[in-house]
Write a structure and sequence with these properties.
Elements (H helix, E strand, L loop, with lengths): L1 H13 L1 H11 L19 E5 L6 E2 L14 E7 L4 H13 L5 E4 L1 H6 L1 H9 L3 E4 L13 H19 L5 E5 L8 H9 L3 E3 L3 E2 L8 H15 L2 E6 L3 H16 L3 E7 L50 E4 L2 E4 L6 H6 L63 H18 L8 H11 L1
Parallel strand pairs: 1-10, 2-7, 3-4, 3-9, 3-10, 4-5, 5-6, 6-7, 8-9
Antiparallel strand pairs: 11-12
The structure holds zinc ion.
Amino acid sequence: MIGKGLAGVRTWQCAALCFGLLACIAAQPAAAADCPGHPDALGTSRTLVVDPREHPRIGTMQYAETLPLEDHEVVLTFDDGPLPRNSNQVLQILASECVKATFFTIGRMAKENPEGVRKLRDAGHSIGSHSQNHPLTFHKMSVEQAKQEIDDGIASVTAALGDGAALAPFFRFPGLLHAEGVEEYLASQGIQTWSADFLADDWRHVSSSRVYELAINRLEAKGKGILLLHDIQARTVAALPRILHELKARGYRIVHVVPATPELPATPTEPQQWQLHPPSETVAISHWPKIPNFVFTGADTLPAPALSDFDWRDGQLMTLVEPLDRARRLARGVPLPREAPWPRQSPLPLDNAASALPVPAESIFEIQEKRHAARRPVAPSSHHAEQTVPSERETDGVARLISADARDSRRMIPRSPPITEPGLRHVLRHLI
Ligand SMILES: [Zn+2]
């Protein structure tokens, strides 16, 4: 409901002074040297103050802008909590390294564990909201339904905190399943929509070592950015100390993000700082897959396509091989480029390929866990696989759901090449 949303913003504004003071206290960077008892801690190098109204959508996985970070700067985010068993351990690990992060909490989880939300605040972390029930249907529900989910989530977290002073106007769509109308609503409320710059797939059934590898490899590929993790996952708890240790070893610095208030103005930045460089690195899930020249090969067995087989231009997916008539060019004596193995053109009517398609099924980006990450380019993958809001006693159930989903995905797409033409047709049908 708009009224509740506006009330939420008014709460933020009315509490601006209090929050500003809190933010000033919480925003003090904890240099490693200042981390009591942990002289080798990673620490928090600086606090970045952002104005959601100036930059309402961030995270290059889906949007043009991301946080204005310097090279080797990282923002840690944790979704779906609080869940005492694992969230408390995440808090302890972060505290031991004097690292500040941003937590996107679920309203229902906050109702079940309000003390967990207060612990986030008391530890000086930023708290955003992640809807009331974590439905994975934001991209297809009505805006009115979405407003209800958003506003209820804000209300639940606010109630857990006792007031809205420590709740930042930051929101992340469950499963990153965004919708433009909902984004507009959030922006109208002064709420900043957070996507991410890279994931570590810690909601999947992978080992903690794999979470560590993905986090570090994907960070290294971009050089900086927003990392999305889940504080409710045991594998994340297990991976986090090693991730933080490696960040320090590789010279990365942690940035803590807080919202601007009248008393705490936004950190001065230039517009270009909100662009991740270079543009070719910014793979936007929201634009996948616009397929103006998507073609299928006629061969029976060819290697599966890699992300590097595509070129992203202004949100349009282009194959690297243009649909050229090779024979005609040969006849004219035009030199031909080396032919890529995939995809060769063959006419296939795609008139019904909608221009605004949903986020791709995560199965499209199924990661072959048995292969080393360095052997293939890092592909974007959709966020959560969970189907329900996890509670502490439900976590195992959620894990089973994820597992089942992953098995389904593996059945749908072979884990290893080749992908045949019928297989690709199946994938496209699934996408549409
Ligand atoms: Zn989530």
